[in-house]
Amino acid sequence: MNNFATRTLTGAGLVILIVTAIWVGPYSFTGLILLINMLSLMEFYRLLEVPGNRPSKRAGAILSSALIICCMIVSASPRSWRLLLLLIPAMYGIFIAVLYGPAKKPFPDLAITFLGLICISLPACFFVALPFLWPPAGSYRFEVPFAVFLLLWTNDTTAYLFGSRFGKHKLFLKISPGKTWEGSFAGAAASLGMAYILSLCFPVLNLMEWEGLTLIIVVTGTYGDLVKSLLKRSTGVKDSGTILPGHGGMLDRFDSWFGSAPFAFIYLKLLKS
Fold first, then answer.
1. Of the candidates 109, 99, 102, 117, which has an alpha carbon nearest to the alpha carbon of residue 61?
2. Which one, out of 36, 85, 93, 225, has a CA that is 20 to 30 A from the CA of 66?
């Protein structure tokens, strides 16, 4: 089986998994986000785990999961916001644990541990709150996270296919030589077209609001992809992992999602406030 066929089959399976988890309800949706977060966070730590640096994987995994679960509960039930206060002593607990640990240079390890939470888990926290932005409080709207993924897929797939065939002008040669301006513009145009279809299917936003969300996702998602490419170049690897045949690792597949999730939340929160 050639790489394109492998990539297509893996992508189709991933789409089915994501769409099903979002459609079933808030618990399967939260489980999906927890899974993406955990696999991506471990990849991030693995990339930066060089001789002399050992990030606290267990502490990072526990704290990141707690962050996401708390954000989901608070989003679904705003009166439970006090749960977030429990995360503060948990964060300080990581520093206390270092005092009793064997690490000779603990602060570089701590820096990588918390950098993973910022780059991976924080975007996941924003995204897990997206379906609960609409009244009544506590209601779950699957349309919003589904649409964000659909727009990202439309942009990424179109940019890849069109750029591979017609791309000549490099978007960011020193970081990601495979990306072109032609592919980026094609991806943006296809995504704006998809936003029009979404406005007809899901009236939670009007056409202009969908188009605004699309532009934010396209721009910030592209930068998320470039930042991931910068990380890989800094660590001297081609792919962040091998868990997704034809795609590489979780960071290779979800880089645009990590880049766009916080900005999508901010846009929709301000829009609906």
1. 117
2. 225
Half-sphere exposure of 84 (CA within 13 A, CB side): 12
Burial degree of 112 (CB within 10 A; 0-12, 13-18, 19+): buried
Token couple for 245: 């045949």
**Closest among 65, 59, 66 to 96, alpha carbons compared:** 59
The pTM for the full model equals 0.91
Angle between helices 143-166 and 250-272 (to 10 degrees): 130
241: three-class secondary structure by DSSP: coil
| Residue type, position 173, single letter | L
CA 105 to chain centre: 30
Give residue-wise pLDDT tens across range 27-78.
999 999 999 999 999 999 998 887 777 888 888 999 999 999 999 999 988 8
